[in-house]
Amino acid sequence: MSHAIPTSASPANQKNEGCLVLFGLTFIVIGLVLGAFAYFPPILSWWSSHSWEEVPCWIETAELTTSNGRKGGTTYRVVASYR
After folding, report:
1. N- or C-end of the chain: fewer Cβ atoms within 10 A?
2. Which SS3 state, helix, strand or coil, does residue 20 take?
3. Do residues 58 and 83 lie in contact, with contact meaning Cβ atoms separated by under 8 Å?
4. 62 - beta bridge partners?
5. 66 and 79 in contact (C-beta within 8 Å)?
6. Nearest to 65 by CA among 76, 54, 51
7. What would the pLDDT profile of 32-79 be if each residue is shown by its tens digit?
C-alpha cells in the first residue's frame, strides 16, 4: 500500500507560492513608489543646497508664536525677518 506524500514541489503548491510572491511584490512596489515621492524631493533639495554660496545676513526680528491646535495641542511657529 503506497501513500502519496504532498511535497512543496507539486504543481498546485508552486502555483500558490507564485501567487503569494506576486501579491507581496505588489505591496513592495507600491511602497517603493510612495517612498520615492515622499523622500526624493527633500533629498534632492538637500543635495542642491551644497552648491549655494554663503552670504552675510542680518536678522532684524525673530519671534516665536504659539497657538492651540485643532486636536487640543499647542502649535509653535517661528517668524523671522532678515536682509
Report:
1. N
2. helix
3. yes
4. 80
5. no
6. 76
7. 999 888 888 888 888 898 888 999 999 999 999 998 877 878 889 999
